[in-house]
Amino acid sequence: MIKNMVPVTKLIATFAFSFWALVMHTTIPLIILVAAELLILAVCGNLQRNSKAVGSLAVFAVFLGFVQLLGGGSVESAYVTGLRMMAMTVVFIILLTTTRLQDLTAAMVTQIKIPYEYAFMFTAALRFVPDFIAESKAVQEAQACRGLSVKGNVFKRMINYMSVIQPLMLKSLSRSETMALSLELRGFGSQQRHSFMSNVQPNAMDYGLIGGMILISAVVIYLRIHGIV
Amino acid sequence: MIQIHDISKLEFHHRQGGQFRWITISTLMLAIGTILHLVSPSVAGITPNWTIATYCVAICLTKPTYRQALGIGLVAALVNVLTSKSGFPYGNLISEPIGALSCAFIVHHFSFLRFRGHSLLPVITGIISTCLSGGVFVTILKFVMDLPMVVYTAGMLPLVGVIGLLNGIVTPVMYYPALRLFVSRGVLDSLEEQMVISDHSQFDLKPVQEELISLEHVSYIYNKQKIPVLNDINLNIHEGDFLVIAGESGSGKSSLCMTLTGAIPHYFGGVMKGMVYVDGKATTQTTISDLACHVGMMLDDYDSQLVAMTVEEEIAFSLENQGVNPKIIKEAITSALDKVGLTEYRTRELSKLSGGQRQRLVIAGVLVTNPDILVFDEPTSALDPEGTNAFYKLIHTLNTRYGHTVVIVEHTLEAALPYANRMVLIDHGRILCDSDVETVLRYMYDTHIYVSAIPHVFACQLNLEEMGYNLGSAWLSTELAVQELQEVQ
Amino acid sequence: MLEMKNVNFDYGNGVPILKEVNLTIGEGEFIGLGGRNGCGKTTVTRLLMGLEKPVQGDILKDGKSIIKQDASIRSRFIGYVFQRPERQMFRPTVAQEIAYGPQQLGMTKKETGEAVAEAMEAAGLQKLAYAYPPNLNRGEKQRVAIASALAMHTQYLILDEPTSGQDSTEKEKLMMLLTKLNDAGLTILLITHDMDILAQYCKRVIVMGHQTKYFDGTPQKLFTECDELMDLGLTRPQSVTLSMAVAGMKYCKSMAEFQDEMIKRLGGNA
User: Touching check for C169 and chain B: CB below 8 Å?
Assistant: First the structure.
């Protein structure tokens, strides 16, 4: 079912879960919230793939909990801090692993009205990341063949690292002119409205879910006012 | 409508384009910032904040408006969130735009600060933007997570300060080499060009002959140059031609290709004389976008033309920019994939394609707007012999089976000549010879111009002919030479 | 002398790249390394350089095992020129760029200066000493990369497809430079797809095929006696194809030789 949700619904869900995590300030409801999120992640079949990311978020959450304790907070507040952290960030993992990038950008531009140039920069930057990773390895090898060693103290390693960053940066930046020309040749930024291949219009189920989330938010606020959550 | 009597005197002025330079530089810098995080050396987990450092460099280089800087910050945050570098997305989504805006503010108001001739901008922006962005981030974290004040003041804020100082070191280290690169290519100071842009809309411009493409008395001189790069070029390209353009480097071949797509005169800064007609329309009276439906070009660094994550999105890019209906886009993609033979790779990610496949993808992206004419600028420089053969077979199919007119700039003539029906020799901006392949090669040999590009087998025959020996018809390829040799014996 | 003894290599996913490779590179040789894409020729050079470690087998220099030395240590005696030399360039001038290697090796300022001057002279780069490397053309960048390796006083030089993407004049200039360096004593190992270069300049050709060293001998033997050229992903150089088309003509390793032979044949003076 998650896969059939349109990106804008999932975005609203992300904010809704975060909102609930903010409003709740006792341990048990937050545990339920986090468990619900992990359950959703498992149901989508993505728990395995994202276990590393979830794990490091959990570590960070525990760390924050400790910080809270050290700073003079109560044990309860430490739990709340840690769990709130988990609740507000795991939901992003759900959003990102269940949504195709092109659908997300289509939603961002057509529904959230983010200018298309920003969405383009976003996907284009990500497109270059694997290429640059390979390139940085190649640069490191080339410099190693000229005597660059990876041992030494931190300062030496930082200076050596510069001889990997600078060539990489220069090679990539020398493409920026060709890229700018290519964008113009392909009609980028022309006055016409940009169309998208992905269809991200919400349907009845989406509206239903959004309505449901608004309802739950009202309930959560009500419960909070009465001190229950 | 005003009539023109001498087209060779009609001028068109333009300033150097590059309205998207801020986008391309920022995109590339953000991508670099992302990977630097992956392999950065660190002390006890503390590293410079590479994301902020790289967007500060981008902003110092391109001096964007506040709206553009806001976009850069927002995209930086989104990229961090998507690559799971963000420990707390809400914090980044607010702190990075603030960091970028503060950087833009400093760049716009304090660029006069220099030390020994070098700008102090990278150091200042590195420190201040990082501290501001980091400060906002930890403040949001503190209030949302309800962290104790003592941790905030004694732990988090000093940490932000340390990272700010680290950034104050790495930002200039990245900025100065980048600045040197752009200055050496004369790119950035073009922002100050104050030239007027000509308007030809009131002229009645018609080609002398009805051809697919015709260049009449075309000359072009770049704004900073003294010598024209194109000098009184007259050329007619017929439908179905497979034209090879040959000449030494710097002879004007690439500039000639640029006139066909409209990049000259509408993108580059310079003065064009004469006229280029594509499908009967004068290029000074149309836009690059309109011309893209007639002429598609593959630039020599084809990797920088690829901008999407999957094959499908890449091909759809040009059509999406024109606002074409999604259903039509999907059909156009199918047809383009079919022509280049990449149908089974439709949903494949770009990073998983080989070099030759990527090149075919660029071609598909060009074919999708259905241009009649395809232009290639040194397409085989990065390919091995196998790849070169595969490439030319594909182009030959596009030329003969699908009817595209092909214009190729090539210096490895052996590969292209078997398929070419026509060749043009350019030297110092002038067309010296425009004829079939053998005639032009002989011309090159007789006038000692660009002799090194003559295929070695044919050059050998020409040498022997000069000594008085007749060896049959032209040895334009090794196979033909073998045939002739066997007959002569 | 560099040796590979019984080297096996794969990337750990079960697909073997190299099986039982034995090869010896003597000092002063000029060797061409060929084969189809994916045959392992680049892998062989990477193993020699220390960029990869063999799964089994040993790599020796002058009889001593160097398998534990990584690339930065082997760079003292082996230089590696990559296919895309712009990847490693970041200094403001050519001279400073060439100085990078010697500086990494720990040479003093004086020694570095001398090494750089020698290398620039050997590679013909004196006029470009203060040029900005990213703006040089492909052939000039290759020569800067070669000079960068020479300045480290290496005995062996490995080049990965140095002439790809270059026009005839640049190719010839580069190959003449390599020949000159080889005559002066530098051992050269050249990966190339260009059959004409293999025939004209290399004194020995190694062809990798079927996951091992398939052919090791002179270019003449390869192009006239080997039946499996197509199988190995190779073709004949133009001069050899033409000389074989003329009855009774000897093996011609370059078009210049073929031309001379034709002149003799047709009864004139050369």
Answer: yes
Instruction: Give yes or no for a contact between C208 and C41, defined as CB atoms under 8 angstroms apart.
Output: yes
10 Å CB burial of residue A97 (0-12, 13-18, 19+) is middle
For the domain that residue C84 is a member of, what is the CATH number?
3.40.50.300
Q: Count of domains in chain C?
A: 2
Q: Of A142, A144, A149, which has the smallest distance from its Cβ to C87's Cβ?
A: A142
Neighbours of chain C (3+ CB pairs under 8 A): A, B
Answer whether residue C270 shows pLDDT above 60.
no
**The CATH number of the domain where B87 resides is what?**
1.10.1760.20
Question: HSE on the CB side for C231, CA within 13 Å?
Answer: 8
Say how many domains are in chain B.
Answer: 1
pLDDT 10s digits, B377-413: 999 888 888 889 999 999 999 999 999 999 999 989 9
Q: Which of residues 26-65 of B touch C (CB under 8 A)?
A: none
Question: Rounded distance, CA B56 to CA B33, Å?
Answer: 11
Nearest-neighbour CA in chain B from C217: distance (Å): 23
Average pLDDT over residues B102-109: 94
Q: C247 in contact with B at a CB cutoff of 8 Å?
A: yes
* CA atoms lying within 13 Å on the CB side of residue C8: 7
Q: How many helices (H) and strands (E) does chain B have?
A: 18, 15
- Distance, in Å, from the CA atom of B392 to the CA atom of B423, rounded to the nearest integer, reads 16
Domain that includes residue A217, residue range: 2-100+198-225
**Among candidates A57, A157, A173 on the partner chain, residue whose Cβ is nearest the Cβ of B178:** A173
Residues A186, B317: C-beta atoms closer than 8 Å: yes
Token pair belonging to C150 = 């020479």
Look over chain C and give the mean of its residue pLDDT values, rounded to a whole number.
91
- Which subunits sit against B, judged by 3+ Cβ pairs under 8 A? A, C
Q: Chain C window 106-145: which residues touch B at a Cβ cutoff of 8 Å?
A: 132, 134-135, 137-138
What is the number of H-type helices and E-type strands within chain A? 9, 0
What is the rounded CA–CA span in Å between residue B21 and residue A184? 11
Closest by alpha carbon to C233, among C193, C264, C189?
C193
Tens-digit pLDDT profile for residues A87-115: 988 888 888 888 888 899 999 998 888 89
Tell me, what's the ipTM? 0.91
Confirm if A200 and A107 have CB atoms less than 8 A apart.
yes
If asked whether residues A82 and A162 sit together in one domain, one would say no
Contacts of residue A78, Cβ cutoff 8 Å, sequence gap at least 6:
A65, A66, A68, A69
Give yes or no: residues C137 and C186 share one domain: yes
Work out the average pLDDT over B286-297.
90
Confidence of residue B243 (pLDDT cuts 50, 70, 90): very high
A144 with C152: Cβ contact below 8 A: no
- Phi/psi at B277 (5° precision): -110, 125
B386/C37 CB distance under 8 A: yes
Same domain, A73 and A122: no
Q: What is the mean pLDDT of chain A?
A: 87
Q: Domain of B33?
A: 21-191
CA distance A160 to chain B (A): 10
Cβ of C262 and B411 within 8 Å? no
Q: Work out the number of other CB atoms within 10 angstroms of the CB of residue B394.
A: 17
Chain B from 5 to 24: CB within 8 A of any C CB? none
Write down the pLDDT at residue B192. Answer: 53
Q: Which of A146, A149, A168 sits opposite C100 (nearest CB)?
A: A146
Q: Residue B179: closest CA among chain C residues belongs to which residue?
A: C92
Instruction: Please tell me whether residues A6 and A95 are part of one structural domain.
Output: yes
pLDDT tens by residue, C40-72: 899 999 999 999 999 999 999 999 999 999 999
B170 occurs within a structural domain: yes
Identify whether the C-beta of residue B422 lies closer than 8 Å to the C-beta of residue B242.
yes
